[in-house]
Design brief:
CATH topology: UDP-N-acetylmuramoyl-L-alanine:D-glutamate ligase
Number of strands: 13
Strand order of the largest sheet: 5-4-1-8-9-10-11-12-13
Distance between the termini: 26 Å
Shape: globular
CATH class: Alpha Beta
CATH superfamily: Ribokinase
Structural class: alpha/beta
Order of helices and strands: HEEEHEHEEEHEHEHEHHEEEHHH
Length: 327
């Protein structure tokens, strides 16, 4: 499979946001009751890039950050995780980095995302055209990059340039309603991005959204696998996942853990799944390792800090020899 050839180069161009995450301490504290906060790097694309580096991959991020202390914090954090920041550029003026406040608790969980005037939405076509795509094996992005202009056009241009250079496009739909002007725009744009992608990962609600109804989501995933995508992962939360590839459908379960928060699972799944494919593991094993990464992250505070490295993942798998709840 040509897609796997690119992934096995272990060098990834990741397009999308980096931000600052704040979460009240100790665990279980509500935002309104906070007196101290844990601060960490956030943003789906940045989390994925950091997670890949933890597994020994190379990753570079393309985005814009605010020209202020928060933007510099994000740059510093990317560097600390080992993510290449050559294509992370500051944007002056009133644009600001994304800021996410989320609680380390599952019951009555609150997340508050500040995205007005987001710096990352100012990523331009010129930004993605400045990249030497021949230096990478694959392109990865998450759906929020398409939610606004000029970032939307820039991301589509990145897809075009990646495909022209022979890179597979890996797409996590990651639909966040608060980022979009309307559901209708999101459905149209995300469907277009999905049709251009070689690997698509989304949950049942997201596939249903793209298809015009949650009852049509499974058929949409199957259709994409039969027409334009080489690998499609249809995630169903606690019910596991169905993976479509090479005309086959493979069911998989999840790993049971005591979750302390619901955030970060998708980013960690992506990093673990893609890194496992890059290491030459078979598709089902890669999905299960991605699922294990998701379980590890929801059981710890933070997102990027909670993402496992290889040793942590192997220790988890040794302690959890079987997945549960297969579909």
């Amino acid at each position: 499979m040509q897609v796997l050839d690119g992934i096995k180069k272990k060098s990834f161009l990741v397009i999308g946001r980096v931000g600052m995450d704040l979460s009240p301490e100790p665990a279980g504290t509500g935002i309104e009751d906070a007196s101290s906060m844990m601060v960490a790097m956030g943003g789906s694309s940045a989390n994925i890039a950091a997670g890949l580096v933890k597994f020994g991959m190379q990753s570079a991020l393309v985005t814009r950050v605010s020209d202020d202390a928060v933007g510099r914090y994000c740059l510093n954090q990317l560097g600390r995780y080992g993510v290449d920041t050559a294509h992370v550029k500051p944007i002056a003026g009133e644009f600001r980095n994304s800021l996410a406040l989320y609680e380390t608790r599952v019951q009555d969980h609150n997340s508050v995302i500040y995205r007005n005037g987001a710096a990352d939405f100012q990523m331009s076509i010129e930004d993605v055209e400045a990249v030497d795509y021949s230096q990478f094996g694959a392109l990865i992005t998450a759906g929020t990059v398409f939610a606004s202009e000029p970032s939307r056009s820039a991301a589509f241009r990145g897809f075009e340039l990646a495909k022209a250079a022979g890179l597979p496009v890996i797409f996590d739909v990651d639909y966040r309603p608060y980022s979009w002007p309307s559901p209708q725009v999101a459905e149209e744009v995300l469907s277009r991005a999905g049709a251009m992608s070689d690997v698509i990962i989304a949950n049942d609600e997201e596939f249903g959204f793209m298809a015009g109804g949650i009852d049509k989501g499974l058929a949409k995933a199957r259709e994409l696998a039969e027409t334009t995508a080489s690998i499609v992962v249809y995630k169903m939360g606690h019910l596991g996942a169905i993976t479509f590839a090479n005309g086959t459908e493979t069911k998989s379960g999840i790993y049971q853990v005591e979750a302390v928060k619901p955030t970060g699972a998708g980013d960690s799944f992506m990093a673990g799944f893609i890194a496992s494919l890059a290491e030459g593991r078979d598709l089902h094993d890669a999905v299960m390792r991605g699922s294990a990464c998701a379980a590890i992250v929801v059981a710890k505070p933070g997102c990027a800090p909670a993402m496992p490295d290889a040793a942590t993942l192997e220790a988890f798998l040794a302690a959890h020899p079987g997945a549960t709840n297969p579909v």
